[in-house]
Structure formats: C-alpha cells, structure tokens
Design goal:
single chain, 8 strands, eight-stranded mixed beta sheet, Rossmann fold
C-alpha cells in the first residue's frame, strides 16, 4: 500500500513538473523578448497619469487648441506609435496629446477585462485632469466607440471628433454568449498564457501587419514592427488581458445610437481596402444621417492616417478649423 502511494506521489510530482515547463518557457520567452525588442524611445520621455485602472503613459507636443489622439486596439502591440506620421505636422497648429490606453504600450497592464465603458470614463477624466479644457479627438478603429461613449456620458468635454474605421456598426461586432468562453480561454493562467505567446510571435505579428493593418507592405518599417512586438510582450503575459477583451469583442459597443443622438460634429475616414471593417459599413451611418462628412482613402486599410498622412493631416486641419 505504501509503495502504491509512493508511486502516485511520484507520478503526480512528475506530471506537475512537466506541466510547469511550458509556463517557465513562456515566462522566459516574454522576458527575453522585452530585452531583444527594447523600445528605442526613452522610457522617461513622457508623462504618467494615474488613473483608476493603472498608470497611463502620455506625451504632449505643440501649442494651440488641444487635440487628443486615441490609438487603435485592433492589432497586437498597438500603441500611440501609430500617430508618428501625424504628430509633428499637427503640432504646428495644435497642442497634441497622445496616450497609450491602459493595457497597451507603456501604460500599466492590469489583470482585468477591458470594456468601452472603462475607457470612456478614463478619456473624460484625462480631459478634465490633464488637458483641463474641452478638446477635439481623433480615434482609430474600435477606439471610436470609446470616444462616442465618452461624449454620450458627459457631453461638453469633446468639441469635435474624427472617427477612423469605426467598429460597432453591424451585429457581428457585438459580443455574444459564446465570446465569453473565448475571453476566459485567454484570461486563465496556464492555457491563456500559451495561447497568447503563440499570438505574439514575430511571424504572427508580421502577418497581421502585412495582411490586415497595412495596405502597402513598404510602409511597415522595422521600427514599427519591433515596437508592436515589444508592446505585445512588455509586462509579460499581463498584455493578454487587453488582447482577450478585444478578441472576444468585449471592447465593442453599438455606436449607432451614440452617433444618432450626438450633437458633437463628427467626421468619418475609412480605409477602402479594410478587410476587417468593410467600407460598406459607412452606408449604415449614411442611413442614420445622410449629411455626414466623410472621406474614403484608397490604398489603405486600418491606418489611413499612417499610410496617407499628408492628405489625412490636411483633412484634420480643415475640419477642426471650421
């Protein structure tokens, strides 16, 4: 009997040891990646805003009326980096604020489920505490919903909005019961860590950038790609929580109602080749308001502001100066 018990203990020990190997490898994978793809930008070149769900990293450049730029959450490793083609030009006439949303970039990555409501509250508080006056906002992809909800919760903080490829227009964008299972599969400690590690390989991130985010592969610099890899792995597997919330559609809201009742001037920009969010969704918004202002950018996908920054910056200045 004693021998049998010893065998059970031995097998349990061996099984436990084997099960910890992938976890150790995953932890080493993220740690080594942080070193290899270390961000070229100085860690101390910005500011920190302490929000209720963690520290938010942000930058300020320029003088004039304030503009807040909210990056996309629709690709792994997203951050304020996507605005690098716009900040310098816009800062000649505006005071430009850029931030990394909680769960992204250099901001804190708490172990929580992220929703549009979380971000909407944070955006309003950031405007009040840091910008300290109403501002105009440019938002990218799913983040457009965060801004529209911010405006709906507390009207008056936002003067004008430019929405780039907004999601939350058709029923496929909204989370259903089965998406909860997907969320939990990523959030659980063991399986979730491994699944997320597989999603953040250099090959996977490169494929996403080349096939979904950018239209022209030549626009993907090595610096941009490495920045995505670094951001995706910074703070280890804590980064998986924001990805899980996006992938399971928990960040999405139906924006149609917010758009219909908004009194804030809104301009829409769409990448014509966007395969994740077809330009035909613009027709749904036209049905709500036939007089909406919009521009469709040819030969761009998720980031028309990056791939055609010259024309984009002109539209921004023209719309905000009206």
């Amino acid at each position: 009997m004693k021998k049998k018990n010893n065998n059970i203990i031995s097998k349990a020990f061996i099984f436990g040891f084997i099960m910890t190997i992938p976890a150790i490898i995953t932890k080493m994978f993220f740690k080594l990646s942080e070193i290899k793809y270390k961000d070229k930008d100085d860690e101390n070149d910005g500011f920190i805003y302490k929000s209720n769900i963690g520290d938010i990293y942000y930058n300020i450049k320029g003088v004039g009326e304030p503009i807040l730029l909210i990056h996309s959450v629709n690709y792994i490793g997203a951050s304020m980096k996507e605005w690098e083609q716009n900040i310098d030009e816009l800062s000649y006439n505006y005071k430009v604020y850029t931030l990394d949303l909680p769960g992204f970039g250099k901001s804190e990555k708490p172990k929580t489920t992220f929703t549009a409501y979380n971000y909407a509250i944070i955006i309003n508080k950031f405007i009040k505490d840091i910008i300290k006056k109403p501002c105009s906002i440019i938002a990218s992809n799913t983040s457009c919903g965060f801004v529209l909800m911010s405006d709906r919760i507390e009207n008056g903080n936002i003067k004008k909005i430019i929405n780039i490829n907004p999601t939350g227009i058709n029923y496929n964008d909204i989370a259903i019961n089965s998406d909860t299972k997907k969320l939990k599969c990523y959030e659980i400690p063991y399986i979730g860590n491994i699944r997320y590690a597989l999603k953040t390989t250099k090959k996977t991130i490169s494929n996403i950038l080349e096939n979904k985010v950018f239209f022209n592969k030549e626009n993907i610099t090595e610096d941009f790609k490495n920045n995505c890899i670094f951001n995706a792995r910074k703070n280890g597997t804590n980064s998986k929580f924001s990805y899980a919330s996006y992938e399971s559609k928990f960040m999405n809201i139906d924006i149609k109602l917010s758009f219909k009742h908004s009194k804030t001037p809104i301009y829409f920009i769409w990448g014509e080749e966007n395969i994740d969010n077809d330009v035909s969704n613009l027709n749904i918004l036209k049905e709500i308001n036939p007089n909406i202002e919009f521009t469709i950018f040819k030969n761009t996908k998720m980031l028309p502001h990056y791939e055609n920054n010259i024309e984009f910056n002109k539209i921004v200045e023209n719309f905000f100066e009206k």
